[in-house]
Prior knowledge:
Blueprint: E1 3-4, E2 12-13, E3 34-35, H1 38-51, E4 55-60, H2 67-77, E5 82-88, H3 104-112, E6 119-123, H4 129-135, E7 139-142, H5 152-163, E8 167-170, H6 179-190, H7 194-201, H8 208-218, E9 222-227, E10 229-237, E11 241-242, E12 249-250, E13 253-262, H9 263-272, E14 276-284, H10 287-298, E15 302-308, E16 314-320, E17 323-330, H11 338-352, E18 356-363, H12 371-381, E19 385-392, E20 407-408, H13 412-419, H14 426-437, E21 441-445, E22 451-456, E23 474-479, H15 492-505, H16 510-524, H17 535-546, E24 552-553, H18 555-560, E25 568-569
Helix pairs in contact: 4-5, 8-17, 9-15, 11-12, 13-14, 15-16, 16-17
Amino acid sequence: MSVTDPSRSGQPVKTASDASSPEGRRPWPSFVRGIVTREQLTTLRAMLREAGLRLVQCHGCFDIVHPGHIRHLRQAKSLGDVLLVSITGDDTMKKGTGRPLIPQELRADNLAALDFVDFVFVESGPTAADLLAWVQPDVYVKGKEYEFNNDPRFAAERSTVERHGGRVVFSSGDVVFSSSALIAAMEQSVDPFHARLAQLTQSPELEMGSLGDVLSQMRGKRLMVVGETIVDTYTMCDRPDVAGESPVMTLRPLEQRRYDGGAAIIARHAAALGAHPVLVTVLPETAEGRSLAARLNAEGIEVRSLPLGGRMPEKQRFLVGTQKMVKIDQVEPYVLDAAQQRALVALAASAAGPSCDVAIIADFGLGLFTPTLTAEMCGALRPSVGVLSGDVSGRRSNLMAMSGMDLLCPSENELRDATRQLSEGLPAATWSLLESTRTKNAIVTLGGDGLIAFDRLAIDSENAIEDGSFSRRLRSEHVPALSPMAMDALGCGDALLTTASLALATGCGLLPAAFLGACAAGVQVQRLGNLPVSASEIRKMAARVHGAHLTFATPEALEARGLGSRRAVG
């Protein structure tokens, strides 16, 4: 008799079975083994009854075929003449997010390749109960863990088998594996932070609906940022060579790209998130300065600048591909006299107005801020703003002069340099910063390890801990880096600071603010150059994190990602 072999494009195939008929039974008819359709299974079941052969059935997901499965199926085959393995289809598998790991077609193919498996069938229902009523196996074999299981789904399967004269047998369970545990272990090995991200996404504060609400509420917020404006220039070069006159690297420029940096990109991030930003900065009275102001105005950013002489600060980077080879800072440090400092403070206070939602002080270490000016700026802005945030960059910045802040966002190195705590634990260094500056919260960035959000808890003298423990002084939450590969780290801190500050202005907690800030940084780090991050991009990144799991990747998907024709999971 011939049946259709699905692996051969539906062509009828005849093969002689090697199975020998038990004594006293009719000969086992010849037909192909493998994956069968419902119609083929109906025909085969009738043939087995006619031949007097016992059908054994196993059912499960078989997402990863492990040694426990092999022993289970081999024992099942020994209980009869023909072994049918049915698997739960993709649409009805209820094993949690990311399951099945392997598509049903490939799971069926894996099982059909085993010598002791005769037939494989993909069941579209959520349980095997309907299939068992139709096939009516002589023996139904389940794992040892089901022997004392009160799951109503298995109870229905057992009742169905026994009602049609079959018996239910439990495998020995001498080797026990869990596909779910194996997949969890694989996820840990692929990404050591996967478990932490999975834990974070279970938090009610980080539900997609809640995060979406926060992003929506950012729209229309009034944000003022004060700081230096910088031009970031990327010069794209041909592959490097060695000069003939001496062993020195030679670069040949091909293209130049210019990006708004410093406080200007913070204002652009805010505009892309739907806020109404005001940029308070110093600009030269040149065509370049006027062009920058006009360009930002066109994006909905109000620019209020203190005119100074000189040229715009520029940081040049020479790249080959995406690799930065050389950085040149063409920067003349700002030197403001007392009158100019007072004018800058008055300009920022006027821009903030009586009811600004967010004010950001961004010190990029170019000399615009002195410790005295920073302290005066904080004091002038604090009474009139809802959220006061700050960040620094460079060794000449003034992190410790920022006071009365709601949020500071230094990197770990900036934090340790400022507090002079180079070897102490990070909580100790953070506590020192928060105490010295009278700041409520800090988000400390850790580069490729993500960030830690520190929330300062209210304590009194009776609860103060003197043994070095900070568990009752600080609450901390680690958010891993959300992008496994960094194309360009420039501007990640600015995207994080802007997004987290606006999120806090909506009234959300520090954790969702830090998570959305991490999403913004994750978007920024995946592209070359300083570009504004929009709310839709952050929402997509958050959704990707929520849906992230170990997954089967087709060759086509890998090809699209530039990974060639290699097959993998990840």
